[in-house]
Automatic annotation (TrEMBL), chains A, B:
Domain HTH lacI-type: 2-56
Alphabetical keyword list: DNA-binding, Transcription, Transcription regulation
Protein name per the record: LacI family transcriptional regulator
Origin superkingdom: Bacteria
Length: 335, 335
DNA sequence: CCTAAGTTCGTAAACGTTTACGATTCTATT
DNA sequence: AATAGAATCGTAAACGTTTACGAACTTAGG
């Protein structure tokens, strides 16, 4: 593999000049610039990133820790992150935690060791440890898709308001017995999102003068099967719901199947609304009414902030709330 | 950020000794090893990857070029790749080509420049250019999920046989008018997969003495909408099909919706079989009968081969065909 | 106590860049 | 022609490691 020195020798210049050429620095005549470039091309020269990183103290790499890359919600965020990193000339090291806490921390160690310039995080539960790990090393981090109380920039949506809007829509359609399938709420796996959405649900009901019935509330795990089972529980309870709000599209699809398997029809017998607006949600039958999250943008904006942080630019707003939107398809019917 | 030298000074040893400690080399007493480790811990020392990479000539990073990370088929392969890379202490730089040829080549340049140790490729159309780019630099590459005629290791399935099996299953159920939704076949976007699967379909028909009817064959684009439209074309044609084989689950779901929208029922009126066995395929109604590809394993094995190649180990088999499997669910009915 | 072998450690060069600083060459002005 | 200033270039140090080689020290056997 040819080095800067090989080129210098063949071009009859010093390595400094060659370096200047490749960094588009001034102080080199057009003639020599051409000559150097020509020789470099012939040799198939590529500057060595490790050497550059070493002397600059920057690697041009950002770490990306994500719970599960095969989850369409995450992969869409990842798309946004990857895309703006590319245009800003950064590369991303993919760290798939596989929904395991140990792997997450394993990766944190690896990333510190790799001397990444920054880290984009999307862990379900952002803790003191996460914060400390990088704060001590002055490695900037930003959270994509999740809020936090720590002094860490994040970009997310207003989950409370989003759930509130969804349930309100159902109420406006005349529904009074509205089931809820929320996310994990027990200890380790609890997410702020789940809590916020649950509260949004309750707020909407109570504002409308509807009473909150615990039999209509069940816990899912953000998987289709979990949604299916939660919906089953709700459907089996005494009070027959006329609508179910699942806090993720995947769970909503599970719920959809559950109502079918109960011999009911959607939306005629029970309306269903989801959350996220993943691609999937419009190819179900009926297509899902859902709360759209701007996944791609969440990733994109998070990456933008991180890179600004890396470059020492002051970031005016550290907590960004992006707009959600209710997209109405055919899984809901007025009563 | 503390360096090896800081530690050496505080521990009253030379930098060579510190280096030996962190590489678990012999020739250092237990006492000094402890002392060095202790001081390193206090300082929060992390060895510098760039410096290491520079002197070793290896970065411990592999590039991963993939057409679309948000496609569940790819993301499952990515999971496999990422997982075995992690256990083998490699990191992966994610390159999402976004289904664009330019971005693919942009990334090829970037990866060469990054001095990655190897590259895992999954491009729809592997060409001379792809091959040349890395061959010239002695950077090993392997193809995950796609075969090629070039001298490049790959791991894939036998697409011909898989399609053959799927259609044969339909035939064994008594179907005679079987529609096919294949992938893109025109020039740039053509994939060997699509061709092989199309041929498997035809072979199965002709072996069973059934005639091939062009009206029953339509082209999709591996998207749900494409599957929907292709199925529409097939359904509208003169000969009424009793079954449709779509060459990807996503397209099969589109087809499923099309038969519903034609006022037909699946599987009563028309059976549908898909291809891939992505998670989605079992949460449709009815759950899809499909050809299962071992996506995770394809990625995992590909990574394994690449890493062996990087380490100069001779790879016995360079062309690996993994087993597919027909998974029977409820979207097919005997006639 | 002497020597040989083994154990533990340090010195210095190397990896491929970037960059501050100074040196040389060129151009233009007098 | 002499000189100032600009344009162009080279020298060398630095970045943080790894590692070959050899030096110093320890231990054991006689």
């Amino acid at each position: 593999m040819p080095t800067i020195e090989d080129i210098a020798r063949l071009a009859n210049v010093s390595i400094a000049t060659v370096s200047r050429v490749f960094n588009n620095k001034p102080d080199v005549s057009e003639k020599t610039r051409e000559r150097v470039l020509q020789i470099a091309r012939e040799l198939g020269y590529e500057p060595s990133m490790p050497a550059r990183s070493l002397i600059k103290g920057k690697t041009g790499i950002v770490g990306l820790i994500v719970p599960d890359i095969s989850n369409p919600y995450y992969s869409e965020i990842v798309r946004g992150i990857e895309d703006t990193c590319r245009t800003r000339r950064y590369n991303v090291i993919l760290c798939n935690a596989d929904n395991k806490r140990e792997k997450e921390f394993e990766y944190i160690d690896i990333l510190k060791n790799r001397w990444v310039d920054g880290v984009i995080f999307h862990c379900d539960y952002f803790s003191e440890e996460h914060y400390e790990a990088f704060a001590r090393k002055n490695i900037p981090i930003v959270l994509a898709g999740r809020a936090t109380a720590y002094d860490v920039p994040y970009v997310a949506i207003d989950n409370f308001k989003a759930a509130f809007d969804a349930v309100n829509y159902l109420i406006s359609l005349g529904h009074e017995r509205i089931g809820l399938i929320h996310g994990p709420l027990d200890g380790m796996k609890e997410t702020i999102d789940s809590v916020d959405r649950l509260m949004g649900y309750k707020k909407a009901l109570s504002e409308a003068g509807l009473k909150i019935c615990e039999d209509l509330i069940a816990e899912g795990d953000f998987k289709a099967k979990g949604g299916y089972e939660a919906a089953g529980k709700i459907l089996k309870a005494g009070v027959k719901p006329t609508a179910i709000f699942a806090v993720s599209d995947i769970m909503a699809i599970g719920a959809l199947n559950a109502v079918l398997d109960f011999g009911l029809k959607c939306p005629e017998d029970v309306s269903v609304v989801g959350f996220d607006n993943i691609d999937l949600s419009e190819i179900t039958r009926p297509p899902l009414t859902t709360i759209a999250q701007p996944m791609y943008n969440i990733g994109s904006v998070a990456a933008e902030i991180l890179i600004n942080l890396i470059n020492g630019e002051s970031v005016e707003r550290k907590r960004i709330i992006l707009d959600h939107k209710l997209v109405i398809r055919s899984s809901c019917k007025s009563i």
